[in-house]
Design goal:
alpha+beta; Aminopeptidase; 166 residues; 7-stranded mixed β-sheet; globular
């Protein structure tokens, strides 16, 4: 299948287009434009956009990292309906994976609605594993499944020394 889109990082001028795409897909549940603008200003290196050959925004992934880049989190991923099933979402997440590998993060986590089969399948295919189900995460009846991709082995804790050992 011929790729008719490209993935690149986000810049501040992209915030209105990202917010518009989010509203088109998520409706009232979309983050407001100020969230996207601030996220891009602060974490632009870890936010990726997909554009078609005409330069139109067709998808994005917003990923943010915990202090020190130890763990990455996928906060939002959206692909325009006309481009779903073409690998756009996978390419966006793969860009986030590569970013977190490059900064030495231990893992990347995504929270997915349990009935979002397309996302669950995509994240599994990319190597993410279910770590837990969290009921009422976003409020009553709003459950999520937590998926995590281990990027780097977690360091083993050293055996603690007692107070009398030099």
């Amino acid at each position: 299948m011929e790729t008719t889109w490209q993935v690149g990082r986000a810049f501040p001028d992209d915030a209105p287009k990202v917010a518009n795409l989010a509203v088109n897909v998520w409706g009232q549940y979309a983050f407001p434009i100020n969230f996207y603008r601030q996220a891009i200003d602060i974490f632009g290196e870890s936010i990726f956009l997909a554009r078609n050959n005409d330069g139109e925004l067709i998808g994005y992934v917003v990923s943010l990292c915990e202090r020190g880049g130890v763990e990455g989190w996928i906060m939002s991923i959206v692909v325009a309906s006309d481009f779903r099933g073409r690998g756009v979402g996978s390419a966006l997440v793969q860009s986030a994976i590569e970013f977190y590998l490059s900064i030495g993060s231990r893992g990347l986590t995504a929270l997915i609605e349990p009935d979002n089969n397309a996302s669950l399948t995509m994240f599994r295919r990319l190597g993410f594993q279910e770590s837990e189900r969290i009921d009422d995460y976003y409020g009553f009846g709003e459950h999520v499944v937590k998926y995590r991709l281990l990027l780097k082995s977690e360091p083993l804790l050293e055996k603690p020394r007692d107070a009398f050992t030099l």
